[in-house]
Structures are given as structure tokens and as C-alpha cells.
Amino acid sequence: MSGDLLWIPPFTAPARGIVRLPGSKSITNRAMLLAALAEGETTLEGALFSEDTAIMADGLRRLGFTVEEDAGARRIRVHGTGGRIPAAEAELFVGLAGTAARFLTALCCLHPGGRYRIDGVPQMRKRPIGSLLDALENLGARIHSNGGFFPIDIESRGLAGGTVSLDASSSSQLLSALLMVAPLARAPVTIELTNSGYRREYVRMTLRMMEQFGQAPARISADAMTLHPPHGAPYRRATPLYPVEPDASAASYFLALPIAAGGGITLPGLPEDSLQGDTGFADRLAEAGVRVSRNRDGVTSTFSRGERARAADADYHPISDTFLTMAALAPLLDGVTRIRGIAHTRRQETDRVAGMAAELRRLGQHVIEEKDALEIHPRPLRAGVEIETYGDHRFAMSFGILGCHDLRGDGHPWLAIRNPGCCAKTFPDFFEVLESVRRQSLQSDPHE
Questions:
Q1: CA 277, CA 174: separation in Å to the nearest integer?
Q2: Alpha-carbon distance 448 to 443, whole Å?
Q3: Considering only CA atoms, which of 251, 179, 180 is closest in space to residue 426?
Q4: Which listed residue (52, 167, 321, 406) is catalytic?
Q5: Which one of 3.65.10.10, 2.60.40.1080, 1.10.1060.10, 3.30.70.20 gives the CATH number of domain 25-227?
Q6: Quick check: is 313 catalytic?
Q7: Which terminal Cβ of the chain has fewer Cβ within 10 Å, N or C?
Q8: CATH node for 5-22+247-444
Q9: DSSP letter at 239?
């Protein structure tokens, strides 16, 4: 793959193959932070190597931690310091990596006398962090920001403990960042949430991973609006190895591929008790008529070539990183697709709701855009369209799957992706893997 425009070769045979996914970005970045806070060395096995994880690793190094990477072996070794931040001063660049931005901000505040500056690309300066900054200041940090946005300057004094309020409705990362540093405050921390619309799945991931690194379970109120993180015990791994699950958000693209091309795809390594809420996308596929099965070899999705899957009205708030996958394939579905619970995605890498509506209209679809929802009425697809990705990896991958549909029945590309390299954020070789599946499908089809 080269250049700024990639035409997608359609599948002329039903999809067949086994796809080995990269590691989860969410787990890799959380595990790096927790390993840095723990005592001794931790080796992440199956870790993701991408722009976002590179930014996290670089930030930890600038803070004085030793982080060793072996991309070929998909292994990251982190030398923990038992809760101590080695460097008292640093300048950190977080690009457009939301997890790194929020997590490193909270981490810096643990130093008893540090001075740090954190900034990112122009789009990062539009992403919300003000509620986290307010909470950290109430716990003892002094933070200067651009009205609650990056760039920020931190004068850290350690975290005193106490009760703080937090609005995590714009991003659960704000809450996860605070949770991970709370055990190392001087006194217990209580977090009172001011908005119930936060993504609980990612918070559960954070809390489960904190337990995997030796913390006691958090106490949570019945309405999940007050959280009491554990306090007083150090982070510590019982074993120096930490296995990183394959990325469930990335799984959505290949699990959905049979809708566009027919056939069956198997994804090994995703556990049934996954830390990742995005495994719930398989339920949305099942509702559409895709056959999804699990066995010891992994997860398999199958669908008959030439059939039309069923459209649905569904709440994607718990699995919003996957909403673009279903929205991009909505033109191939039977009926009207309505996707709800996605208002917060307007403040991610780009305004994902408006962007998806614009690209579907470019393809000839009738789209009704609301603040919190998209309603997609299928119309005949236009050929020769170049999809704008807005620098957002999920646009590139979602529409890449749609392009696998053999629209004209002649195997000629009809859809192109602008700036396909934006996939480097989480899945650098996505289009190479997709092409490998296409070629493998041709070889396994007896009619070709």
C-alpha cells in the first residue's frame, strides 16, 4: 500500500481465512501504565505496536521509566518503580492518542514535586479533559490549561486523597485515569460521578486490570455513581508476564466482512470472558442474521454470499467504537438502520457522527443525522467514490470492508479510501491483512 488514495479490490469469492488480530490498544496502554506503577519488571505479551502505543511508551520514557519494545515478538517490557515517577520534569507530546493523554496527565500528578508540560496535535486540543483536571486539582495538583483543554502545565504535589466530582460522559478515559492513580494517593479517594452516561465497559476493564496488578476490588455504589478505589496497597504482578488480548474493536471489521463478501472468517485468541466490551458487537451481527460461533479455535462469523443481512434499531453506546462498522455496511442491509447512543463520538478523533453521515451521503444513501443517532435508509450505492477518512482510522477500516462488496459483479474496485495510512493509529497493516484474506479466499474457492 502506498500513496494517499487506495482503491479497494472487491472479493469475487466468499471470504475465507483466519485473521490474527493485533493486541488491544486499550489493554496495552493500561497495562503499560500499571506495569510502570508496579514493583519489578512486567512483560506484555501480544502487545499492540501502533502510533497510540508508541506515544504511551515514549511518554513513560520521558518520565524516566525504562520501556523496552520488541515489535517482531509483539512484546513490551516495562521496569516498574513501585509508584515513584523518576523524572521531576518533562515535556510530553501525546499526538491524537486519547488514552495516553488522559493516563499520562493523571500519572504526572503522583510526583511530590514535579513540573510537566503536555500537548498534542490541533485536534487533541479540542478533546475534553477539563473534568479530570478539576478532579486532580482538588486532589492537590496545580494545573494550568487552555480553558480545560491541552496544552496543560502541571505542578504536581502528589495526590492528597479525599472526595472529588467527575463528569466522564465525554470519555470514560477520564475516570479510568483517575482510578488507576487513586490507590497511590496519600489518603483514600472517593469519586462521585455527576453524569450517568459514561461507558461502564471500559471502566470495568480498568478495574479488572487493576485487580490483575494486585489491587483489591473497588467498592461501587448500587447506582454506579460513587466509586471507592482501593487504597494503600502497592501495584504488584503475581507473574512477570501479562498477556494482551487481541483487539475486539478491530475484530468488528473482520467479523462483519461476510456481510459484504459472504463466506466465513475465524479470529483466534479472543477469550469468552474478555476484558473488552466491544466483543458485544458479535451480538449485533447475530441480530442481523450473521452466524457467530465460538470454539477453542476462536470466534467465527459466517454469512451466505448474495443474501442481505437484517437492519436494526440499536443502542451502540456501550460499543461505540464499532458503530462505524455497522453504519458503513448499512447500505447492504435489508431495511432502515438506526444507530443510537453515539453523541459522545462527536468529540473523538473527529466528529464521527457528522463524518459518517457525510460519507454515506457521498455514496448515495439517505441519512437522517441527529445529535445522538444516525438513521440510514439504503439507496443504490454510487461507484467511483473516494471516501474521506478525516484522519480517523475507524473510517478507513469500516469503509474498507464496504469496498470488499463486489458492487458491479466484475471484480473491479468501485470505492477508494483517502489517507489509508491513518490506520497506523491502532492497526498499521490493516489493508495488507485484508488483501491477504482476499487472496486466500480466491485460492480456497473451487469455482475460481
A1: 17
A2: 8
A3: 251
A4: 321
A5: 3.65.10.10
A6: no
A7: C
A8: 3.65.10.10
A9: S
